[in-house]
Amino acid sequence: MPFCTKCGAQFEGDGILCFLCESNATQNDPSKASFAKSADAFGAAEDYTASFDPKDIQANKGMGVLAYLGILFCVPYFAAQKSRFSQFHAKQGMILFLFEVVINLIMGTLRAFFSWIRPIGFLLGFLHSLFGLAILALIVIGISNVLKGKAKELPFLGKLTKKL
What we know:
The protein is built from 6 helices and 2 strands; from the N terminus they run ββαααααα. The longest helix has about 30 residues, at about 85-115. Helices cover about 55% and strands about 0% of the residues. The chain starts with a strand and ends in a 17-residue tail after the last helix. Helix 5 (about 85-115) runs antiparallel to helix 6. The radius of gyration is 23 Å and the shape is flat. The chain is mostly helical. The chain has a two-stranded antiparallel sheet. It folds into 2 domains: about 5-40, no CATH class; about 50-164, no CATH class.
């Protein structure tokens, strides 16, 4: 639907003249532009696929999948050092694995310490489960990117791989 470039009013049908301020209409939707901006800022993930060799991507998808299976990130990290694609995913898998270990250590310690206070123990158990689901979602996103042949950062954690 067209919108007025001057006052932002929405037109009915295919009008080209705004009835409110009498200026020309445009097909641009300002609400969509602002939504796209906010979506990019929240957990944005950059896609680096264009900078990778398609033959490297095709040959190392299996190594890329291993990168997201816990400690198995070591296999592509050490066995496929010449593959930029597998190294990209191995580094992301390493960050994800370290994040998982830290979360489990912190939440396990807190749960052990506060388990005698039932409401707090229950809340910590619930939060631990939510973190586990978030980590599982990131694993699925990473494996999905590998199988699609994409070198795309993981949301929230992907920025940390640039520092490795």
